[in-house]
Amino acid sequence: MLTHAAEDYLKSIYKLQEKVGKVSTGILAEYLNVKPASATGMIKKLKTMQLVKHERYQGVTLTDAGKAIALEIIRHHRLLELYLFKALGVPWDGVHEEAEKLEHVISEDVEARMDEFLGYPTADPHGAPIPDKNGVVIKRMSIPMTDLCSGQSCVVAEVSDTDSALLRHLGSFNLYPGTAFRVIEVAPFEGPFTIDIAGQQVVIGREVAKHIFVDDVKE
Amino acid sequence: MLTHAAEDYLKSIYKLQEKVGKVSTGILAEYLNVKPASATGMIKKLKTMQLVKHERYQGVTLTDAGKAIALEIIRHHRLLELYLFKALGVPWDGVHEEAEKLEHVISEDVEARMDEFLGYPTADPHGAPIPDKNGVVIKRMSIPMTDLCSGQSCVVAEVSDTDSALLRHLGSFNLYPGTAFRVIEVAPFEGPFTIDIAGQQVVIGREVAKHIFVDDVKE
DNA sequence: AAATTAATTTAGGCATACCTAAATTATATA
DNA sequence: TATATAATTTAGGTATGCCTAAATTAATTT
Ligand SMILES: [Mn+2]
Ligand SMILES: [Mn+2]
Ligand SMILES: [Mn+2]
Ligand SMILES: [Mn+2]
To answer: Tens digits of per-residue pLDDT, B34-46?
Structure first.
């Protein structure tokens, strides 16, 4: 069995790899709140375990074995988030922190029982896809809200889940995955978005909008 | 915050202290599947944190602060066992192992939500008392089944929860906490017990009987 | 009281996972 | 192309928690 730290590295490499391709030591270290030297050290260990590919100074990527473990941990995390949310009523801005600790510790049996309880769900409370038990992830074609123009309407697909205060803020506007809204105005010079949610007019700053991803964009 | 290992030591010292008073290094080490030298090392650390009292060669006991933490962990463990059993249907011979890992990781918030879901329970699936959130434990006056004589009837109060195979064995006879039975015969020379459970006649070996504690003994 | 036996502690090591500081390598700029 | 800058790796150190082996202390036996 892998250590918690090793699992976190694999999970982080997976997520960064999805965006960047090859993952640099520096990016990985920053993402994990760790110094680059520490990341180098773990990368070496993971390489001897054949969980990552790595050439000095050239960045890391996961092997198939490493990817399988990363997806396993991500599955635990997202199932746990949804379970805590639905079964225990933990607020959506609290589930991430909790799942971050539990993901390394639950058994496959408990994973399967939560999955069944939840009816084999495909997305967590923040809209992120839950890999199935074979590691298959459904990829949604969502775009960042910052790409929207005035007049367009859409549905919230996913929001980033790491910042608890941001999630409370979004919650106060009902900006959950599945919520539809229409862009009324985009202020010039990288300004805020004014949107219409179920008849309510709301102003969303650019920094916040960057963390919202949307679907079903229509004129 | 304490390390998982430190929490396990405190929990173990508490449990052993209930039986033995002062806890010797050797007993503690054996209980934790660790060498005596390792126990000595942790005892020293816990002493500097003022969580235990210890004089060389004289055994350990918990301070009030140490006891509070021990009870907190035991509360987590037993609430988790009952939650896994009732909410997720994990079999009673599986919950201990699972709770052993989760107890160090859940938040006070999740603890409180499980407590509420379960209706503020006072015993885990094996009959062990769950300390309340202030650390108050209800002590039951149960006796080991091995103290029973033929003709006596009683109710199962508690069974030990560490041996999964034993629990499956007990389950096959319906020997759960709350189950009533009557002793039909105690074989001589430390022999087995023949008992009557709801009309069914069952033979329980002495080694098994040692792990069953009973209540409400009547002639 | 002395010697044996048992329990406990000390000493020295290993693995994990982090750190800082220095050395190395790659990339950008002049 | 030479030099400056940035990224990465290496080297050496800390803390935790375990280990084995040796030394110490306590308890028992003769
Ligand atoms: Mn799993
Ligand atoms: Mn999430
Ligand atoms: Mn607690
Ligand atoms: Mn139990």
So the answer is: 999 999 989 999 9
